[in-house]
Write a structure and sequence with these properties.
InterPro entries: ACAS_N (IPR032387), AMP-bd_C (IPR025110), AMP-bd_C_sf (IPR045851), AMP-binding_CS (IPR020845), AMP-dep_synth/lig_dom (IPR000873), ANL_N_sf (IPR042099). GO terms for molecular function: propionate-CoA ligase activity. This protein has about 625 residues and is of the alpha/beta class. It folds into two domains: about 400 residues, Rossmann fold (3-Layer(aba) Sandwich); about 130 residues, 2-Layer Sandwich (GMP Synthetase, Chain A, domain 3). It has 18 helices and 31 strands. Strand 30, helix 16 and strand 31 form a beta-alpha-beta unit. Helix 3 runs parallel beside helix 10. The chain is globular and about 70 Å long. About 55% of the residues are buried. The protein binds coenzyme A and adenosine monophosphate. Adenosine monophosphate binds next to strand 25 and strand 26.
Amino acid sequence: MATEPSYNDVYRRSMRDPEDFWAEAAAGIDWDRPWDRVLDATNAPFYRWFTGGRLNTCYNALDRHVEGGRADQPALIYDSPVTGTSTTYTYVELRDAVALFAGALAAQGVGHGDRVVIYMPMVPEAVVAMLACARLGAIHSVVFGGFAANELAKRIEDARPVVVVSASCGIEPTRTVAYKPLLDDALDLVTEKPRRCIILQRPQLTADLDPTRDIAWDDALAGVGPADCVPVAATDPLYILYTSGTTGQPKGIVRDNGGHAVALNWSMRNVYGIEPGEVFWTASDVGWVVGHSYIVYAPLLAGATTVLYEGKPVGTPDAGAFWRVAAEHGVQVMFTAPTAFRAIRQQDPEGTHIDRYDLANLRALFLAGERCDPETLRWAEEKLRIPVVDHWWQTETGWAIAATCLGIEHLPVVPGSPGRPVPGWDVRVLDDQGRELPRGQTGALTVRLPMPPGAAPTLWNADERFRETYLSAFPGYYQTADAGYIDDDGHVFVMARTDDIINVAGHRLSTGAIEEVLATHPDVAECAVIGAADELKGQLPVGLLVLKAGVERPHGEIAAEVVQMVRDRIGAVAAFKTATVVPRLPKTRSGKILRATMRKIADGEEYTPPPTIDDPAILDEIAESLHPSSR
Ligand code: COA
Ligand code: AMP
């Protein structure tokens, strides 16, 4: 009997002969035209995969499964405790819904290469809209519902969509969020308006439509026929997903069609151990990369069943929500962010809800989006008695850089580490000069180029920004902007970001973007935002404000105003609730703000003033402002 290849075998093969490795994986996808080159290095360091090849991602996610015998298998299960609904779409039903909506988009003038912005809550129509764009060869850009009008406007301005697809409202456990007024405000801010807005009217709150621009989802479908799949180049963009950079201008991460389909399809079996026909559930949001890859594309490309959950881990209605969903839909593998488990554990430390449900089918839990503290990992392992796998990736990479690949070899998980590099990813730890560091030493986590298929080839309309941001610090390597080390056994440890990105409840935020908002307050002379450790959300943003000379207003009033400004301009998702007035910001003699020291102060940790500080006394004053009388 042939033995299964070990992780080491598979990994080495992916490094030794990447073209052969990924060409073999590409056989899992249906191509309209085979590629001329597997890996095209003509424009290195901008690498392209499968150049010359043509395919349609929607065909691969839906039609081929319908034609291949899965027509009546559930493709998507929508479970929505916030509306009390649960609906199942088989592959043929989802294919038909997508083809019809693609017809509606085409009727509004959307074609190959056109952009469509999707600003929607976690409803099946969001998935339908994404796949309908893919069907036409159009490029979708989904904007997370928790962002405010101003953030939505920045994305619309950059992507210049022909059509925006949105909904009348989203439903949070404690309130109904009216999306349409946010969209209207965003459109007031942009210079080039979309031709049409298609609005899904939800019964919980309907929206007023502008007859010159808006059309209801149902009306957009009336009288149109289904649209066929349009084959596109493997290198054509499938989507743009904006993510936080160091400034307030988000980065439009581009995903191609070919490499993405190949990598995601490969990952389902090899990383997650999921076979066609099995049930995979990612509890995230379609507005994030985790949702793009593992709610929508990967499970469907692989012929699995995906669960779309419109609810929270707690409060909808209780800390047993995840176990109910997993039990009711026979989920085999699930994926979420550690923060969700911290929330569940906080409310149900003994895990008593778990015993109320039959979780016999559930065989693994994957976590990502932020560092998983070993305590949370152990709690989940102990309560669920299944492998709990932390894995590390980014919007840019599209899928896991490091993981324990359950479909290849079931190696033990080391708490605190998201596992070893996934086949295809040549992870290296470098010092400031770009020299490779020995095992165990902390440095910049990088990936030696080329990155495998599925990783972002560039930024939307911004090749230079891509090169500058990711490829220039260490020529020949992609800079992840995470710092960490690799141990003697090859486990990667991801310890911190090297830039001003913070991670709040698994949501990636730019402190720079929040600072840009604070700086516009008329009383603020200078400000800094730092990520302070938080037991539930991992990190929370804290604002430090230096007021202009002569401002006499109560500090609490100013703090409340900036909190509201961040909510209005960035969105509730920023979870910005704390701002405090300080006399000065601590700086080096050359004027650099000492963020790391302030982070320590905010976390209540011991700190020593760096030798370069211009005024050491300010640190104690800041500590007093953040933790009054605790010192
Ligand atoms: N549309 C509109 N508003 C939204 C939203 C959406 N899609 N998602 C979140 N918000 C709002 C919330 O209502 C909340 O508003 P509030 O300040 O009025 O309470 C705010 O944004 C912050 O949301 P969140 O960070 O989700 O905090 P929470 O307190 O509502 O819930 C958790 C905390 C831990 C339960 C929640 O963060 C969670 O489920 N996390 C799972 C992690 C996850 O999905 N990560 C994605 C990457 S994998
Ligand atoms: P995003 O682009 O929103 O997916 O955020 C990516 C960032 O989240 C990474 O660069 C890391 O800083 C962090 N991150 C994601 N997954 C992990 C993980 N498993 N361990 C540690 N950090 C993680």
